[in-house]
Amino acid sequence: MILTANTAAVSPKVGVLLVNLGTPDSPTPKDVKRFLKQFLSDHRVVDLNPLIWKPILNGIILNTRPKAVAELYQSIWWQQGSPLMVVSERQKLALSGALQAQLGRTVPIALGMSYGNPSLANGIDALTTQGVDKVIVLPLYPQYSCSTVAPVFDAVAACYKSRRNYPETRFSKEYYQHPLYIEALAQSVRAHWQQHGQSQCLLMSFHGVPVRYVTEGDPYQQQCETTAILLAQALGLEASQWRLCFQSKFGKEEWLTPATDSLLESLPKQGIKSVDIMCPAFAADCLETLEEISIAGKESFIDAGGHSYRFIDCLNDEPAHIALLKSLVIEQAGHWLAS
Ligand SMILES: C=CC1=C(C)c2cc3[nH]c(cc4nc(cc5[nH]c(cc1n2)c(C)c5CCC(=O)O)C(CCC(=O)O)=C4C)c(C)c3C=C
Ligand SMILES: [Fe+2]
Ligand SMILES: [Fe+2]
Q1: CATH of domain 14-175+319-337
Q2: In Å, how far are 58, 319, 323 from 293, measured between CA atoms?
Q3: Which fold has domain 179-311?
Q4: Annotated domain spans of the chain
Q5: Cβ(107)–Cβ(17) under 8 Å?
Q6: Pocket flag, ligand 1, residue 21 (CB < 6 Å)
């Protein structure tokens, strides 16, 4: 009997896991508490000694913060759900269409959230049950931070740990200076100016992190600065026409400065009475942009003597953003998509 080897190439099935931070299932104290507990128990996010942190988290924060934060979520919640989740679903749909149009075939895409639902493991399961054997993990954080991107890597590895086999996996780490990212940001600012006119100053408010994370090696601050400089150049702004700042301080430790809230209070006294403000570290609008920046930030600025405060939406499912995400997928896939 002659045995013939099966030489037919097995076509790889490539899938994409779109990742973001996650959000509560509903804007109730109970669901907010469950979300915060999972998120704030991650040592990558808060790396204090657990013997000190756990009693603070369980004894104080989880007994006080959920009620207050649930009210904030209620103020920005959309009819279809949490803005972060609604936008993520739209991004998934739009990216799927863009890849289909470019490649002439369907590329399975799943959402996976670092905290809350659907989990990263749910997302990977959704891909593998469709026969995917090559996964591109695309965390939607333009700038790498040990508090956001690294937990995605940890969670994917943890998910594979319990499996006999796992899909070949590529991981997109950052895209803070990708030309299509800078172009998408620039386009969104130009479109905003066209509609509303240009303010005296463009504020680029990035999410903050503790200074210690940066001194211990997190490249986040440097990457935010690079994004900001490239964007200012793309828009032809002079140094006096833009500012970088860091929002959302949490806890007692020193965080990156200048802090967005302090800056907003000080600008009117410096003669800057009109600002446009954007959040380039967020791929999707969420509590931190729609409440903290668009609502609370405006109040601080106007109370401090400012006249005009205009929030620029995140890139969300804008076509230029989807073109960037498509490009990131294709760059990661390399020869996987050739066959
Ligand atoms: C505890 C410290 C925190 C660090 C460090 C941090 C980094 C960080 N976060 C984002 C993006 C998002 N954060 C979101 C919510 C959120 N973040 C923190 C704290 C830290 N973030 C908290 C406690 C919360 C929950 C809300 C609150 O209690 O204030 C979200 C989701 C918002 C939503 O709409 O559900 C995003 C997205 C980045 C990019 C980042 C560092 C680079
Ligand atoms: Fe955060
Ligand atoms: Fe926050």
Answers
A1: 3.40.50.1400
A2: 28, 24, 26
A3: Rossmann fold (3.40.50)
A4: 14-175+319-337, 179-311
A5: no
A6: yes
Closest ligand 1 atom, CA of 282?
A: 39
* Probe target for ligand 1 pocket from 25, 207, 218, 285, with the most ligand atoms within 8 Å of CB: 207
Instruction: Tell me if 14-175+319-337 shares its fold with 179-311.
Output: yes
DSSP 8-state code for residue 11? P
Quick check: CB of 288 below 6 Å from ligand 1? yes
pLDDT in tens, 6-21: 444 556 799 999 999 9
Q: What number does the ligand 1 atom closest to the CA of 213 have?
A: 5
DSSP for 30-74? HHHHHHHHHHHT-TTT--S-HHHHHHHIIIIIHHHHHHHHHHHHH
ipTM passes above 0.90: yes
Q: What is the pLDDT of residues 238-295, one digit of tens each?
A: 999 999 999 999 999 999 999 999 999 999 999 999 999 999 999 999 999 999 999 9
How far is residue 218's CA from residue 145's CA, in Å, rounded to a whole number?
6
Q: Which ligand is nearest to the CA of 114?
A: 1
Instruction: Compute the distance from residue 335 Cα to the ligand 1 centre, in Å.
Output: 35
321 assigned to a ligand binding site: no
Q: With beta carbons less than 8 A apart as the criterion, state whether 174 and 149 touch.
A: yes
Report whether pLDDT(338) > 90. no
Q: What is the pLDDT of residues 80-116, one digit of tens each?
A: 999 999 999 999 999 999 999 999 999 999 999 999 9
Residue with CA nearest ligand 1 atom 31 = 23
Asked whether 147 lines ligand 1 (CB < 6 A), one says: yes
Q: Is 292 one of the annotated binding-site residues? A: no
Instruction: Report the percent of the chain where pLDDT is more than 90.
Output: 95
What is the chain's alpha carbon radius of gyration, rounded to the nearest angstrom? Answer: 21
106 alpha carbon to ligand 3 midpoint, in Å?
Answer: 37
